Amino acid sequence: MFSSLMETARNSPFRGPLSPANCEPAIAAPMEQGGMAASVAQGDSCEFGSTKYFALCGLGGILSCGITHTAVVPLDLVKCRLQVDPDKYKNVVNGFKVSVREEGMRGLAKGWAPTFIGYSLQGLCKFGLYEVFKVAYSGMLDEEAAYTYRTGVYLAASASAEFFADIALSPLEAAKVRIQTMPGFASTLREAWPKMVQNEGYGTFYKGLVPLWGRQIPYTMMKFACFEKTLELLYKYVVPKPRDQCSKGEQLVVTFAAGYIAGVFCAIVSHPADTVVSKLNQDKTATVGSIIGKLGWAGVWKGLGPRIVMIGTLTALQWFIYDAVKVWLRMPRPPPAEMPESMRKRLEAEEAAKSK
Fold first, then answer.
1. What is the pTM of this model?
2. Are 187 and 110 contacting, i.e. CB atoms less than 8 angstroms apart?
3. Which of 15, 176, 215, 314 is the most exposed place for a label (fewest CB within 10 A)?
4. CA distance 44 to 24
């Protein structure tokens, strides 16, 4: 059913601005699976919407999420400790001091392995499936509807992708939080994983899945929709020349700026759920209700400051790396959505009729 939907979206000659036009290929390309010829534009390594394109998007997601989340493990460690033990770790600076005093500089890298593996898997699903769902959902609409409701497409595609991404992330996230917030439990993933299985069974790895969805799905919806809209507005009102006249380097700078703005909003909307996830993975007897009751409304916002810095920088770097991978691999990079010509002419005609 899904493959049939993808073929319908790809072969339709009347697709929205989120999908490429079904034009004659600039270069004759090899036949793809099922006998369909790929339409590869001059200079591109693959066709937009092809299996290869989605696979390379997944690779970009692995690199962008795996590298960036691992790079900020020390800050993430302190943030988690602030959330689960605010009496001991007063603030970010104090959290770093206490952590270094007790475990040394090496202790700040605790949890790097589950972070790298978990967020690489999440990035594969998050970015790869986002592109799949964006093409699929926009293909269900006509050209004008796809443009008018493009934000809805971004939101639906990102939420769908994150649903699966969190299933891949949840076991590694649970192990990471145990390593970072339970002194003496384990120092490495190889030590933590069998202990968790032996003591609590495999179900413990998905104990935090529902609150993880509560944290990550709103986060990702904001991340993609806010990024896409911010990018559109930056090129329309801030960047002094059209996107096609900007160099690749200039486009990447705009990508970074849009990513940072999106990241700030991401951190805010997802922070309460992030606090609950940290507490759930620390205490095997806790429930969502008991945690919220204990912490109160103010308590779930503990650690927001460092998380804004972390997530803002993280999101900006993720979009920068993801876009840079597309440039490096010569992948299609469609411009921000523009109003279809048919819609523009119709609106102009309506406006002219009103003024008469």
1. 0.78
2. yes
3. 15
4. 15
Distance, CA of 179 to CA of 262 (rounded, Å): 30
Dihedral over Cα of 189, 193, 199, 203: its sign? positive
- CB of 270 within 8 A of CB of 218? yes
SS3 31: strand
Q: Evaluate whether 262 touches 255 at the Cβ level (below 8 Å).
A: no
Distance CA 266, CA 90 (A): 24
Rounded-to-integer distance, Cα 138 and Cα 149, Å = 9
Q: How many CB atoms lie within 10 A of CB 7?
A: 13
Residue 27, beta-bridge partner list: 40
- Between CA 351 and CA 198 the distance in angstroms is 70
In a 3-state reduction of DSSP, which class is residue 264? helix
End-to-end CA distance of the chain: 50
Q: pLDDT at residue 159 above 80?
A: yes
CA distance 200 to 232: 48
Summarised one tens digit per residue, pLDDT across range 105-134 is: 988 988 899 999 999 999 999 999 999 999
Helices and strands, counts by H and E, the chain? 13, 0
Tokens at residue 55, please? 């696979």
The distance from CA 204 to its chain's CA centroid, rounded to whole angstroms, is 25
What residues form DSSP beta bridges with 31? 37
